[in-house]
Amino acid sequence: MKKINLTFSLLAVLAFIITSCSGVEKKQSVEETKAVVASENKGQSAVVDEVSSANALQVAKSLDDFKTLVVAIEAAGVEDAVVNVGPLTIFAPVNAAFDKLPAGTVETLLKPENKNQLAFILKNHVAPANFPESQLKKEARKGRKLYMASGKYLVVENKEDGIYVGGFKVLKTVKVSNGWIHVIDNILIPAE
Questions:
Q1: Whether residue 140 sits in one domain with residue 87
Q2: Which helix H or strand E contains 88, and what residues bound it?
């Protein structure tokens, strides 16, 4: 009889442990699901990927020269577009480019009520195509304009001292996982 009671007690303890553990697993599973849903609701820019090569936004965030650009991208709500698989070609203005604008312009554009205007300006810095430096030179030779995500076109020129887009010199080119970043020191403000 004692053997039966001991066996029954062991089975009861084992059942309790299994039930308790499965509750923890369910709780962890629910928490993991919530984290995935939260990142899905934030968009592609919220995905953490430490294995793949850096995309345009990750590169911009890693460099002090693009702090103002990153703030503008986030204020305009276009982060997901900048991390899109692409290919994209981004003409990225450095901080000094924003400093060239009239006093108060950046602050005004960063206000929530100006989000659409800021997004339009930023889209004028993105060509939804693959334009490494060699392709920019070809486009310039053929006299073609670059179609920008804003719906506007920019002239590309190959001058003695380098490539110019929208009248401004490309200072440096960086390959990123979703295309190219061409560094410029001016803002490409589209004519409306």
A1: yes
A2: strand 88-93
